[in-house]
């Protein structure tokens, strides 16, 4: 069941890069961009992560934390972060707990075969922990700029 705009996002904790655990409630008081990507070190995911990396200072100025999530293990996330010099946290959701919370596991087709995978999606959570905006079926080009514009407008309100 998807989250609705204005609904408080249920708290979650998951293993994160830097040998840490990310707990959503510990980020209260800041806006949070949670973006889901299909697989570490693939072209689209590398481009999207790079776009967030390159605009991080602008997100920081808008009181907004960036968190990337995929089903990759923590070692793959650490390698992806290091190789791409990502300056934000990546979360490993191998058991799909967070993916299911945000309803991003979808039936996908690859080379004619169907499989369950992450639908590239981004969510903006306000400083009180409520869902402010959701983007599903994201196309990478220009996406980060759109998310940033909404985060800046929300921070200014």
TrEMBL record:
UniProt-listed Enzyme Commission number(s): 1.11.1.24
Family annotation (Pfam families): AhpC-TSA (PF00578)
Sequence intervals crossing the membrane: none
Catalysed reactions, semicolon-separated: a hydroperoxide + [thioredoxin]-dithiol = an alcohol + [thioredoxin]-disulfide + H2O
InterPro entries: AhpC/TSA (IPR000866), Peroxiredoxin_AhpC-typ (IPR024706), Peroxiredoxin_BCP/PrxQ (IPR050924), Thioredoxin-like_sf (IPR036249), Thioredoxin_domain (IPR013766)
Enzyme class: oxidoreductase
Residue ranges of every copy of the Thioredoxin domain listed in the record: 3-156
Keywords from the UniProt entry: Antioxidant, Disulfide bond, Oxidoreductase, Peroxidase, Redox-active center
Signal peptide (UniProt feature, chain positions): none
Family matches, as SUPFAM superfamilies: Thioredoxin-like
Free-text function comment from the UniProt entry: Thiol-specific peroxidase that catalyzes the reduction of hydrogen peroxide and organic hydroperoxides to water and alcohols, respectively. Plays a role in cell protection against oxidative stress by detoxifying peroxides and as sensor of hydrogen peroxide-mediated signaling events.
Family matches, as PANTHER family: AHPC_TSA FAMILY PROTEIN (PTHR42801:SF4), THIOREDOXIN-DEPENDENT PEROXIDE REDUCTASE (PTHR42801)
Family: Belongs to the peroxiredoxin family. BCP/PrxQ subfamily.
Assembly: Monomer.
Protein name per UniProt: thioredoxin-dependent peroxiredoxin
